[in-house]
Design a protein that fits this description.
Number of domains: 2
Family: Belongs to the binding-protein-dependent transport system permease family.
CATH class of the largest domain: Mainly Alpha
Radius of gyration: 26 Å
CATH architecture of the largest domain: Orthogonal Bundle
Keywords: Cell membrane, Membrane, Transmembrane, Transmembrane helix, Transport
CATH superfamily of the largest domain: MetI-like
Number of helices: 15
Largest sheet: 2 strands, antiparallel
Membrane topology: Multi-pass membrane protein
Strand order of the largest sheet: 1-2
Structural class: mainly alpha
Main location: membrane
Order of helices and strands: HHHHHHHHHHHHHEEHH
Oligomer: single chain
Number of strands: 2
Helix content: over 70%
Strand content: under 5%
Protein name: Carbohydrate ABC transporter permease
CATH topology of the largest domain: MetI-like fold
Length: about 290
């Protein structure tokens, strides 16, 4: 018995230390992972302050001599501010249009009964197999026939419908108690009023999460705007970064200018992500379930 109690006391003394060591190892691994993921952003920030000569000096990893002048050059000489405005307008229109259309579609799928309801829902999900890059050629022909080429409608219209957003809203609406629907019917509440006064207030977190995902997705669009927009002044910020690659000095690419543009292009989605990160995490958790 004495030997057993001695062993238990020894285990009790050792166990907290083992737990602390394990926690330290886990936290150390997390710190290293965060550093490795943030290293490209850190290098971009450093290179955005350097001139061309300093960028090509591999051993030079400190703040450059240009300071904020590269940012002033990008915004002034390369009209990058206009590209930012174009991207903001495009992204906001896509977010508002996609969320609105998806809410109405989810409302119809959950609270209305019509023939081939499940088949319609499956067809909506099948559209996930046909993203915009896959249907660029027929989509370009359609835009040309509609006369939407080189317009705001051309870069926003193809992204308004979203099977992912419809699916998320449908699943969320299905989790709302049926008693609310019955009470609304008894009170004579119409579908639009029910959507506005009941469903939307109960879905604010989901709407915010979908809006964040949609905004970042729209902000990062490159291929379709590059193809459909012929006027450079109407281009978006991702295509604007490509224009910066033409900047050269003595035959060398001015990476300081490019990195300054990349950092500026990162700010709006980063701000949205920081402000709305909690609803986004809730939305991703629901999507994984």
């Amino acid at each position: 018995m004495a030997t057993r109690s001695t062993s238990e006391s020894t285990l009790a003394r050792l166990l907290p230390g083992d737990i602390d060591a394990e926690q330290a190892l886990v936290h150390g691994g997390l710190v290293v992972s965060i550093f490795l993921m943030g290293l490209p952003l850190l290098l971009a920030l450093i290179m955005s302050t350097q001139n061309t000569t300093e960028v090509y000096q591999i051993t030079n990893v400190g703040i450059g001599s240009q300071g904020l002048s590269n940012y002033e050059t990008v915004l002034g000489e390369y009209n990058f501010g206009q590209y930012m405005i174009n991207s903001v307008v495009m992204s906001v229109i896509i977010v508002v249009g996609k969320v609105t259309l998806s809410l109405f579609a989810a409302l119809a799928l959950v609270y209305y009964r019509f023939p081939y309801e499940r088949a319609v829902f499956m067809f909506i999900l099948l559209t996930l197999l046909l993203p915009v890059p896959v249907r660029i050629v027929p989509l370009f022909d359609l835009m040309a026939r509609l006369g939407w080429g080189n317009t705001l409608m051309a870069i926003t219209g193809p992204y308004i419908a979203s099977a992912t957003a419809v699916f998320l809203f449908r699943q969320h609406f299905m989790s709302i108690p049926a008693s609310l629907v019955e009470n609304a019917h008894l009170d004579g509440v119409g579908p639009l009023k029910f959507l506005w006064e009941v469903l939307i207030p109960m879905s604010r977190g989901m709407i915010a999460g979908v809006s964040v995902i949609t905004f970042i997705y729209a902000w990062n669009q490159y291929l379709w705007p590059l193809i459909i927009m012929s006027d450079q002044s109407k281009q978006v910020v991702q295509v604007g970064l490509r224009f910066l690659q033409a900047a050269s000095q003595s035959g060398l690419t001015r990476w300081g200018i490019i990195m300054a543009g990349a950092v500026i292009a990162l700010l709006p989605p980063l701000a949205v992500l920081i402000v709305m990160h909690r609803p986004l995490l809730k939305t991703l958790a629901i999507q994984q379930k």
